[in-house]
Structure formats: structure tokens, C-alpha cells
Design goal:
Blueprint lengths: L3 E3 L9 E3 L23 E3 L12 E3 L4 E8 L2 E2 L3 E10 L5 E2 L3 E5 L4 E7 L3 E6 L2 E6 L3 E2 L3 E10 L6 E9 L10 E9 L20
Parallel strand pairs: 6-16
Antiparallel strand pairs: 1-3, 2-4, 5-7, 7-14, 8-13, 9-12, 9-15, 10-14, 11-12, 15-16
């Protein structure tokens, strides 16, 4: 066989980066380019086996921040909206694998949760939203969480939400909560609409 030319490349798992190139001895350094995960091209003679090429990886530090706000007031028997704003504070350009959870307190019932790039669902009082697309450095994405207020007027409701992702370096800003008093309102009712055929006169 003729001498073979080639280089090596590997796909990275989410949340990892390629280690700096040629730092330390050959047993511990990384030969791959951090920008693309590829080594330089090398020539192998027939039957040559060169096992000195390697690629080091490390967990990429990420800072995801969440801020929760209540839009308006909590009124018995009405639907209220919370906004959950998640920001990529860096230092990397894009963040993948974001998950937001909100354990609704007694007195609130889940109605819906929507946001561009988010997939949301609820199991009992626990609302979970996962980000299906990346979030650029410095960008903020919003989830609109709607709940039915079933608590009586005068009660105090504290609602907390959190965001998680791989290797978050600033856990202090991964939770956000709001507290509000319930305003007495009307009791929630269910309305059923039926279709009535038109009345005709007999001949």
C-alpha cells in the first residue's frame, strides 16, 4: 500500500469543548484544533500504527440566568400569566440543553406554557420546558406560563422557577421567584355552548 494521508476528527458531546492544543507533554496534550476538533494532516507509511494523536475535551463553563415576573395580578377565578426570561450570560457563544422547571404552588393550576424554541408540558403541578434550539450569548428567550388562580382572596402565593444546563458556573442566578397576594374575584365557571337548530312553522 502507498503511504496514507489523513487527519482525525471527533464529534463532541453537548456541553464540552476541545482542550488547548499542544499544552504539556505528549501523554497529556491535545493535538486537535479547538476551533474544529481536527488534527493536522500526517503521513503514515504502510503498516505504520501511530497512537500518539489525541484530542482532549473539557466541560465548557456556562452561565444561564432566569428572571420570573408576574404580568398583572392574581385574581381568584381568572387566568394569570408569568413570564420566565432565560438569558445566556456566556462565556460561550451558544448554549444548548436548557431546561426550565416550575413547581406550581397550591392555589394555581396549569393552563399552558409557550415560548419560541421551547417545548413545554406539565405533570401535576410540575411544569417542565426544554429548549429545542440554541441560545446565543447575550440573548434572552421568554416563556409565557399561564395559570388558573383557584386560591381564595387574601392568600399569599410564592411561585419559583429554575433553569438548568450542563456545567453552569453561576448557580446563584438559576432560580427566580415572585410573591403576590390573591385578589378576590369571581369563582371560575365552565361554559358549554350548544347549537340549536332553527325553528320552522308547520304547514
Amino acid at each position: 500500500l502507498a503511504p496514507q494521508l489523513g487527519n482525525s476528527a471527533r464529534s463532541l458531546p453537548a456541553g464540552y469543548s476541545v482542550s488547548p492544543r499542544n499544552v504539556g507533554g505528549n501523554a497529556t496534550d491535545s493535538d486537535a484544533d479547538p476551533s474544529n476538533g481536527r488534527t493536522t494532516t500526517t503521513t503514515l507509511d504502510p503498516n505504520e500504527d501511530d497512537r500518539t494523536w489525541d484530542m482532549g475535551i473539557y466541560v465548557t463553563p456556562i452561565d444561564a440566568k432566569i428572571v420570573k415576573t408576574l404580568d398583572g395580578t392574581l385574581k381568584t377565578g381568572t387566568v394569570a400569566t408569568y413570564f420566565l426570561d432565560v438569558t445566556n450570560n456566556g462565556p460561550i457563544d451558544t448554549v444548548f440543553g436548557l431546561t426550565v422547571t416550575d413547581d406550581l404552588p397550591a392555589g394555581l393550576q396549569y393552563v399552558s406554557a409557550t415560548g419560541d424554541g421551547w417545548s413545554c408540558s406539565a405533570s401535576g403541578q410540575k411544569v417542565t420546558c426544554t429548549r429545542t434550539t440554541s441560545l446565543a450569548k447575550g440573548a434572552t428567550t421568554r416563556i409565557a406560563l399561564q395559570v388558573m388562580v383557584v386560591a381564595s382572596g387574601g392568600a399569599s402565593i410564592t411561585n419559583l422557577a429554575s433553569v438548568t444546563t450542563v456545567s453552569d458556573t453561576e448557580p446563584a442566578n438559576n432560580e427566580s421567584s415572585t410573591a403576590a397576594f390573591i385578589v378576590e374575584g369571581t369563582t371560575a365557571t365552565s361554559t358549554t355552548t350548544t347549537s340549536t337548530p332553527p325553528t320552522t312553522n308547520a304547514p
